[in-house]
Amino acid sequence: RPVQPEPSIRPDASSKLDLVQRPRRNRKSEWARQLMRENTLTAADLIWPIFVMDGTDARVPVSSMPGVERLTVDQSVREAERAASLGIPAIALFPFTDPALRSADGAEALNGENLVCRTLRAIKDAVPHIGLITDVALDPYTSHGHDGLLDADGRILNDETVAVLVEQALVQAEAGADVIAPSDMMDGRVGAIRRALDAAGFLDAQILAYSAKYASAFYGPFRDAVGSSGCLTGDKRTYQMDPANGTEALREAALDIEEGADMLMVKPGMPYLDILWRLKESFGLPTFAYQVSGEYAMIEAAAANGWLDGEKAMMESLMAFKRAGADGILTYFAPRVAEKLAREG
Ligand code: PBG
Questions:
Q1: Which residues does the entry assign to the active site, renumbered to this chain (predicted)?
Q2: Are 256 and 206 in contact (CB under 8 A)?
Q3: In 200-323, which ranges are continuous DSSP H helix?
Q4: Domain boundaries, the chain
Q5: Which of 81, 100, 145, 341 is spaced 20 to 30 Å from 239 by Cα?
Q6: What is the pLDDT of residues 103-143, one digit of tens each?
Q7: Which atom, in ligand 1's list, is nearest to the CA of 232?
Q8: Does CATH number 3.20.20.70 belong to domain 41-344?
């Protein structure tokens, strides 16, 4: 076989393209990349969702969300202190309700001494300056796992549900919730909650409307975490949005804003960045994205298998939300990210 001549690797003038623009120039070194950077991620962009449970001084790992634990009230207070010291502005609370306290009508949601209310008061006492967000929806409290009340045929009763959600919101506001976040997707709930909050004197309680909440497979691990996966009958497609729809999210958001929403939420996050972008562009309201349990679990599972670099994927996924216009991100990675940012400056 004849020996092939070595290809020349030495640059010579004839191999040069005649380019005026060479975008790579702006990426040539770290200082240049820093200077060109369009978006930044800071601890102040993060909202940390935590799962609370009954008991004292205990933590239980959520098996489908490695690194995430359910916390007793006292442990939640400790984590709230940690969040505050890391510069995380707000925490969102989700209860794991004792199955014995779940019922068809979700009455435990209206108990001023329920887990969420006790956690609100305990954190407010110990860490008064952290923002506290509570979810308005009945699924942690219903024996059937749905966000609303059902009729005899198992259909969701919209208006009857809204009446209960209003009471739930009032109970949360009384216990100290700063932000009321209806995640139930019933029609008319934002307006009803706003009127009731105002009438009760909670003029400052903000409403973060889950305007675009999709019927998603990515909530699976969350339902494990709050213990509603085993009991959910059917699915949530008559109230949560169809993943095929984008323009409908604009109509949902427009209604929520007319009814009094202070902030909007898109959920899930990564598969719906187009929705996030469209809502932010169309309405300009503070708009948040929820990187949900399944998104977290995917990154963690791949990282645990050595299939990707978990920390890099975490940071890249969160930057994507900033690029798409998010004012803040609900993410189970919050403390880990804030710690990394604090370490690395
Ligand atoms: C319930 C609720 C859900 C999530 C937040 N609030 C689940 C659902 O709608 O079934 C999911 C959050 C997550 O997956 O991280 N209203």
A1: 213 (schiff-base intermediate with substrate), 267 (schiff-base intermediate with substrate)
A2: no
A3: 220-225, 247-259, 273-283, 293-304, 310-323
A4: 41-344
A5: 100
A6: 999 999 999 999 999 999 999 999 999 999 999 999 999 99
A7: 10
A8: yes
